[in-house]
Specification:
The complex is a heterodimer of chains A (421) and B (164). Chain A has 421 residues and is α/β, with parallel strands linked by helices. Chain A has 16 helices and 18 strands. In chain B, helix 4 packs across helix 5 and helix 7 packs across helix 8. The chains are: A alpha/beta (421), B alpha/beta (164). The interface between A and B is large, with 52 and 42 residues.
């Protein structure tokens, strides 16, 4: 019987065959942490171990509240910087790099076949490069600092087989939302999702990252894409260490298989307050919005910003809407400047922010007021997510966000494209 | 064995309504976390919850963020157990690591009502509620070991001491 990617990746770590449901203890190649490193460091010290076991496997990116919005945030960052120095952690990225999941990939840590754990739920993102990447908690990160190892359950796997091409105005985010609407926020609970099929092979790495990122919203342990020539070319100049491509066997056993044809997709919107409350945009359009959010670790890469800029070019956003743009990293920001994308966004009336998590976790930089509605390209629309429980968040693709920012209400990007012709 | 009043909630209770993101880096002392438990879902909860009370919820409890405070604030509120048909993966881990018992079972949540007094016998794997007895499967042995030691950090301390 063939093996799935997750089974093979974990088997390689423990040097024996494994089966779903089995618990294994592994030494992850990397441990990602962010602003929560100070709390993790505190827990780590309470264990009674003075030195991090493998400081070179620790990757720390400050991104959640950057630059510090309050003295308390500043103190938090200071504690992280002190811990980094004290422990001799080399892979530290201060506030001038970007959102951890983008930075982790840009800096070449997202490696095929690697087991990567991170104290952030969207650690799944690195599955886009063929890694087994899963989120864990803070105590677990502290335990990895102390011992270098952690237990994991070998997951069942689910195959998502995709064919066809995106109709104009629809994007990979619409596929992510469609899957969420179909299977629900627990549809892939504990499972390893393997995205495959001709359409996924044609998908740029940036959009594979978005899908792997959104697999967390489906409950998945990780979202895997088979590394191909694009992956290897991307890694060529940045891979932080050796890696081995691990592919699922042809006759692997999957718990279930989903099949999608992109050509029948439309733009979708996840309505408050659940990521799986998904409707075609045609059922939601006309809903007045006050804020639009473009970017984040989900959809803040160059092609996302470019899709929005193409729609916004030569137009002004609605006077009653504020459009906030969060490029996923400073590298993305610079590329977007280079390509004139930032200029187009600003010209349309957008407010371009520094890369970071901003209002996505409701901490600062663009939180909502009671009664306000936001159309966002981020990954979550939970009640209170953007800092105010009387606010409402709708999720959609960068195109849907841009079209909505122009209209002042949730809008179908296909109508805008049709009108432009 | 615990006995307590039921707080009943629906499907997909997420980490943001359990412990809002805006407190992630502002409420840093464990002792303060219980005050915000379930703030955006049920404002009465933090004020009225009593030690040993039991949360009975729908599927995918704890979905969303990896923030461990969601498990910590419920544990420190005195919640004796959470009973649901399924739990989000990271929340499950966090709860185990905080020594907060989770019971995964489909049938009991369908019958048990809000405010009902129920009893959980962990040794026998039984829930007594709604005039019935519901069985539930034991946790995996290594997870049980962490729970019995009072959570991951006490468990690790013990393990490291044994190795020394």
């Amino acid at each position: 019987m063939g093996k799935t990617f997750a089974e093979k990746a974990l088997a390689k770590k423990v040097h024996k065959e494994v089966i779903p449901g089995e618990i294994v203890v592994v030494e992850p190649e990397w441990l990602l942490t962010h602003d929560n490193t100070s709390a993790i460091a505190k827990t780590f010290k309470s264990i009674g171990v003075s030195k991090v076991r493998y400081p070179d496997r620790a990757v720390i990116v400050l991104d959640h509240c950057v630059p510090a919005a309050t003295e308390q945030y500043a103190q938090n960052h200071k504690a992280v910087r002190e811990f980094v120095k004290e422990q001799g952690i080399r892979h530290f990225f201060d506030i001038n790099y970007g959102v951890c999941h983008q930075v982790f990939c840009e800096e070449g840590f997202a490696l095929p076949g690697a087991v990567i754990l991170g104290s952030d739920s969207h650690t799944n993102t690195y599955g886009a490069f063929g890694a087994l990447a899963a989120g864990i908690g803070r105590s677990e990160a502290a335990a990895i600092y102390a011992t270098g190892e952690m237990w994991l359950m070998v997951p069942e796997s689910m195959k998502v087989d995709v064919r066809g091409r995106f109709p104009q105005g629809t994007h990979a985010k619409d596929l992510a939302l469609r899957i969420l609407g179909d299977i629900g926020a627990d549809g892939a609970l504990y499972k390893s999702m393997e995205f495959t099929g001709e359409a996924m092979k044609a998908l740029p790495l940036s959009q594979r990252m978005m899908l792997a990122n959104m697999s967390a919203e489906m409950g998945a342990k990780n979202g895997f894409f088979a590394p191909d020539e694009h992956t290897l070319a991307y890694l060529k100049e940045r891979a932080k260490g050796p890696y081995e491509v691990i592919l699922p066997d042809e006759d692997a056993r999957y718990e279930s298989t989903l099949e999608y044809d992109l050509s029948v997709l439309v733009p979708y919107v996840a309505c408050p307050h659940s990521v799986d409350n998904v409707k075609p945009v045609t059922e939601v359009q006309g809903k007045t919005i006050h804020q639009a959010l473009l970017g984040t670790c989900t959809n803040g890469r160059l092609d996302d910003l470019s899709v929005a800029a193409e729609l916004l070019k030569g137009r002004r956003i609605h006077p009653d809407v504020r459009l906030l743009v969060f490029p996923a990293s400073w590298k993305v920001y610079r590329e977007a400047i280079h390509h004139g994308v930032i200029d187009t966004l600003i010209e349309s009336g957008a407010v371009v922010m520094n890369p970071g998590c901003g209002p996505c976790l409701g901490a600062h930089e663009g939180v909502l007021a009671p009664g306000e509605v936001c159309m966002s390209s981020a990954n979550r629309n939970f009640k209170g997510r953007m800092g105010c429980k009387e606010g409402e968040i709708y999720l959609g693709s960068p195109a849907t966000v841009a079209a909505s920012a122009l209209a002042g209400k949730i809008a179908d990007p296909r109508e805008l494209l049709a009108a432009a012709r | 064995m615990i006995k307590g009043k039921v707080w009943k909630y629906g499907d997909n209770v997420n980490t943001d309504v359990i412990f809002p993101g805006k407190y992630t880096y502002t409420v840093t002392e464990r002792s303060e976390m219980a005050r915000y438990a379930l703030e955006d879902l049920d404002p009465r909860f933090a004020k009225e919850v009593k030690a040993g009370d039991i949360i009975v919820a729908g599927k995918n409890f704890g979905c969303g963020s990896s923030r461990e405070q969601a498990a910590i604030c419920l544990k420190l509120s005195g919640v004796g157990a959470i009973i649901a048909p399924s739990f989000s993966r990271i929340f499950f881990r966090n709860a185990v690591n905080e020594g907060l018992p989770l019971i995964t079972t489909k049938e009991a949540p369908q019958h048990i009502a809000d405010k009902e007094e129920i009893e959980v016998d962990f040794e026998k794997g039984e829930i007594h509620g709604a005039g019935k007895t519901f069985g539930f499967p034991p946790l995996p042995a290594n997870v049980m070991e962490i729970m019995n030691d009072g959570g991951l950090i006490p468990h690790l301390k013990k393990k490291l001491k044994d190795q020394a």
